[in-house]
C-alpha cells in the first residue's frame, strides 16, 4: 500500500526517487487506528494493545520520507455509508454490487445488536403529544432543509417534545409505550426522523443503548409510515386528478397543515422515507425505491402538470412535486442512474413554488442538481477502465464547465440580497446556500479527476471517491492515463486551482448553514446545541468531495515544502514570489485547515444519523491525522 502512495505522489508531480532510501527495508507493520475485528497484534509477534488495531502488513519496499506519515494516517476504518440493512453474509461477498457503495457495516448491527430494550435501564425517547407538536418540530428541525409544506399556519414556538421513559419489561419497540401515535403516513415518517434526535438533558441518550433504542423506534415509525402509504394509495383510487380545476378543493385536509390536501401526504411521506433510508439506514437502494414510488404517486394525481392556475392548495401541490423531483435528483447523484422523469421532460408544466422573496431559489436548485448529475455521469464514463476516449469529450467537458460556471455566477447574486426574517425568507436564503453547495460541488466533481487522477485518500469507496481498498485491483495503463489527460481541456494545475476555489466556497457555505431554531429565535449553534443535528445531512457527499480536495491539496503543498519545490505549487498561491513563498504556503495551509474544520464541524454534529454519520467521523480522523495538534470538532 505504501508503494502505491509513493507512485501516487509521483503522479501528483511532488515526489521523485530522492524521497526514497535506495536500500530496501524489511517487511514492516503499519498500525492505523482502533477498529473492531482487526487482526491481533500477536499474530505479527507484537505486544498486545488495549484497543484492537488495524494492522496492515507492508511488503518489502523503500523507506519513505516522513511527510508520507500524514497521508498514511488518513486511512481509518470509519469510512463509507453505514448500511444498517446489510448482513454480515452480504458483506463477505466481494462482488462490485456489494462493495460499490463502500458500506462499512460491522459483523452485527452494532455492539448492542443482540440486546433488547429490556436491557435499556429505563431509557427515554423523544415523543410528541399531538399533531401540532409534531408539525412544530418539523418546522424547527426539517423544514429549513426539506421544505415539504407551505409556510407554517401557526406562530413559531419552542420544541414541545415529551421525553418518554420506556418500561423495563419491554422487549421490542411498541407504539403502546408512546404517549401519542401519529394519525397519518406523513406524521409517522416525520416522527422517524425526529425520534433520532437525542434528548438534550439525558446523558444516557448518547450511549450505545440509547442509540439502539432511538434506532428501534425510528424503524418502527418508518415501517408504520410505509404501511400507511400503501393503505392510502389503495384508498386513493384512480379518480383524483389535481390538474382538473378545483380538484383539490373538495378533498380532506391534512391533520398537519390546513392548506395541504390529505391526498398529498403519501407522496410527502415517501419523500421523507427516502431521506430516512439514506441518512439513517444508509440504504441507497431503498432510498431510490422510495423516491421512485413518490414520483409515480405524484404523477398518478397529475402533480407534474398543474399549470399556472392558482387555488388555495397550489403552493402545497407545487412544493410536493418539486421537493419530490429534488430528492429524485439527489438519489440519482448517489446512485449514478437518471431519475424516472428528468427536469426537461415536456410533460412537466407545474410552476416552481414560491417563498415570496426577491430572489427565488427553486429553479436554480433544480438546475444545480441536474448539472451535478451531468458531472457525475461525465466523470464516471471517463473513469471506467474499459472506456476509450471519445474525440468530442473535450468539447463536452468545456460545455458542461461553462454551464456550471454560469450557475455559479447566478448563485453569487444571493450573496448580495438581504433576505431578512419575515415569512420564509430565511428558508429561501438557506436553499440558496444548499444550491451553492451543490453547484460548486458539481465543478469540483468535474475537475477532481484531472487534478488528482483518482489517487485514493480514504480506505473505502463512497461518494464516488477513490478508495485504497480498491486501488490495487487494476492499475491504469500509461496509455489509458494519457488518453484521459488528453481528453481534458484543462491542465492539472488549472483543475487543481478550480477544485481549491470551489471546495473553499463549499466549506464556507457549510459553516453558514443554520442550526435548529429551538426557541423560535436565532441561535448561534454553540456547543450547547451539539446533541441536536446541524442539518438533515442528505448532502453529506458534498462535504466529502470538498474534504478530499482540501486534504489532497494540503498534502501536495506539504510535499512541495518538504522537497523544496514550492515553485510547483505556485498555481495554488496568490501572486507568489520566491521571497514570500514559504509564508504564502503557510497562509494556504491555514486556509485549507479552516476549510476542513468547517466541513467536519458541520458533519460531526450530524452523526446522530447513522447512515451518514461515519462520514463525520472520517473527516475528524483525517483532520487529526493531518493536524496532530488539533482538537476534536
SSE map:
Layout (H helix, E strand, L loop, with lengths): L1 H10 L16 E7 L18 E6 L9 H6 L14 H4 L4 H4 L24 E4 L3 H11 L20 E4 L19 H10 L13 H29 L28 H15 L4 H17 L13 H22 L26 H22 L9 H20 L12 H28 L15 H4 L6 H10 L4 H21 L27 H23 L18 H24 L5 H17 L7
Antiparallel strand pairs: 1-2, 3-4
Organism: Penicillium atrosanguineum
Protein name: Transcription factor domain-containing protein
Detailed description of the structure:
There is one protein chain. The chain has a domain at 115-354. The protein is built from 19 helices and 4 strands. With 633 residues, it is mainly alpha-helical. It has a two-stranded antiparallel sheet. Strands 3-4 form a two-stranded antiparallel sheet. α7 runs antiparallel to α8. It is globular, with a radius of gyration of 25 Å. This is Transcription factor domain-containing protein.
List low-confidence stretches: 1-9, 15-80, 88-120, 520-530
| Mean pLDDT over all positions | 80
Q: What pattern of helices and strands is seen along the backbone?
A: HEEHHHEHEHHHHHHHHHHHHHH
How are strands sequenced across the largest beta sheet? 1-2
Give the % helix.
40-55%
Largest sheet: 2 strands, antiparallel
Radius of gyration: 25 Å
Contiguous helical run count: 19
Strand content: under 5%
Broad shape: globular
Cα end-to-end separation: 29 Å
Structural class: mainly alpha
Number of extended strands: 4
Key structural traits:
mainly alpha; single chain; 4 strands; globular; disordered N terminus; two-stranded antiparallel sheet; 633 residues
